[in-house]
């Protein structure tokens, strides 16, 4: 059963959401590791977490970009660690760096992902390309989840957020390797959520990372939250990739 965590309101940073004026609370002293945080959604997540009082470890293979983001956020807020998520020792080092520097890990964001060259015909797809995508997109999430759980279980709390894709809900919009990896992430997330719930650790697939990292979302776990403007609702099996 998912353990219920108390809200430590004296330590919380609050902000107003645009639409309803509802306060979202995120602890000022929360510590997050974000893979793929040197650019794209990962960078945006790192910047947003930092803005809301969290301290972030950016784990990425793009050293120059990652260090630049950390420099912009400031040394008190952000640190960079070189990390190839398909290598377990690299992932372990990122987690250890966070714990050694800040004493804990509250949030793990598994964002790092790649895509293979677009080839709509499966006969043209290469096994090596397929395996490389899976090694980053799926194995990387597995390793990030495994090592984050190892750090979170002793404290009986934490949030693991895996970045999914609408390609896990709609066929024909991405490559076979990318789509397969994102489908698998949903299954892995739900399986791990069932296991880690008793430790108060939540596992989610989402792009709404700020909310899922906050105490406001403590009742949400094992959920695949589609942030797609309703695309998967109104366009099932649209087949855009196959038409390219």
Which descriptors would you attach to this protein?
9 helices; disordered N terminus; Rossmann fold; globular; NAD(P)-bd_dom_sf; alpha/beta; 6-stranded parallel sheet; two-stranded antiparallel sheet; oxidoreductase activity; disordered C terminus; 244 residues
Would you give an account of this structure?
GO terms for molecular function: oxidoreductase activity. InterPro entries: NAD(P)-bd_dom_sf, Sc_DH/Rdtase_CS, SDR_fam. Pfam families: adh_short, adh_short_C2. Belongs to the short-chain dehydrogenases/reductases (SDR) family. Keywords: Oxidoreductase. With 244 residues, the chain is of the alpha/beta class. The chain has a single domain (27-243), classed as NAD(P)-binding Rossmann-like Domain (Rossmann fold), CATH 3.40.50. The chain is 40% helix and 16% strand. It has 9 helices and 8 strands. The chain has helices at 40-51, 63-73, 88-102, 127-137, 139-152, 176-196, 209-213, 231-234, 240-243; strands spanning 12-16, 23-27, 31-35, 55-60, 78-82, 107-110, 158-162, 201-205. Strands 5-4-3-6-7-8 form a 6-stranded parallel sheet, sandwiched between helices. Strands 1-2 form a two-stranded antiparallel ribbon. The longest helix is centred in the last third of the chain and has 21 residues, at 176-196. The N and C termini lie far apart (46 Å). Mean pLDDT is 81; it is low at 1-25 and 240-244.
Provide the fold topology.
Layout: E1 12-16, E2 23-27, E3 31-35, H1 40-51, E4 55-60, H2 63-73, E5 78-82, H3 88-102, E6 107-110, H4 127-137, H5 139-152, E7 158-162, H6 176-196, E8 201-205, H7 209-213, H8 231-234, H9 240-243
Parallel strand pairs: 3-4, 3-6, 4-5, 6-7, 7-8
Antiparallel strand pairs: 1-2
Helix pairs in contact: 3-5, 4-6, 5-6
């Amino acid at each position: 059963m998912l353990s219920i965590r108390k809200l430590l309101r004296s330590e919380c940073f609050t902000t107003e959401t645009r639409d309803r004026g509802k306060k979202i609370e995120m602890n000022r002293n929360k510590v997050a590791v974000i893979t793929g945080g040197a650019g794209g959604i990962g960078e945006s997540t790192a910047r947003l977490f930092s803005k809301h009082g969290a301290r972030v470890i950016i784990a990425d293979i793009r050293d120059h970009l990652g260090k630049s983001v950390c420099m912009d956020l400031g040394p008190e807020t952000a640190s960079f660690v070189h990390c190839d998520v398909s290598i377990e020792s690299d992932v372990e080092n990122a987690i250890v760096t966070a714990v050694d520097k800040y004493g804990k890990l509250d949030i793990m964001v598994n964002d790092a992902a790649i895509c293979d060259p677009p080839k709509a015909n499966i006969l043209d797809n290469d096994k090596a390309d397929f395996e490389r995508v899976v090694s980053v997109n799926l194995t990387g999430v597995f390793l990030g989840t495994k090592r984050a759980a190892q750090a979170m279980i002793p404290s009986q709390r934490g949030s693991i957020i895996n970045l999914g894709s609408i390609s896990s809900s709609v066929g024909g919009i991405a490559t076979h390797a990318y789509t397969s990896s994102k489908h698998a992430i949903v299954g892995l997330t739900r399986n791990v959520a069932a296991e880690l719930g008793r430790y108060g650790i939540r596992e989610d697939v989402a792009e709404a990372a700020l909310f899922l990292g906050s105490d406001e979302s403590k009742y949400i776990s094992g959920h695949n939250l589609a942030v797609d403007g309703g695309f998967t609702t109104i366009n099932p099996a649209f087949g855009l990739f196959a038409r390219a």
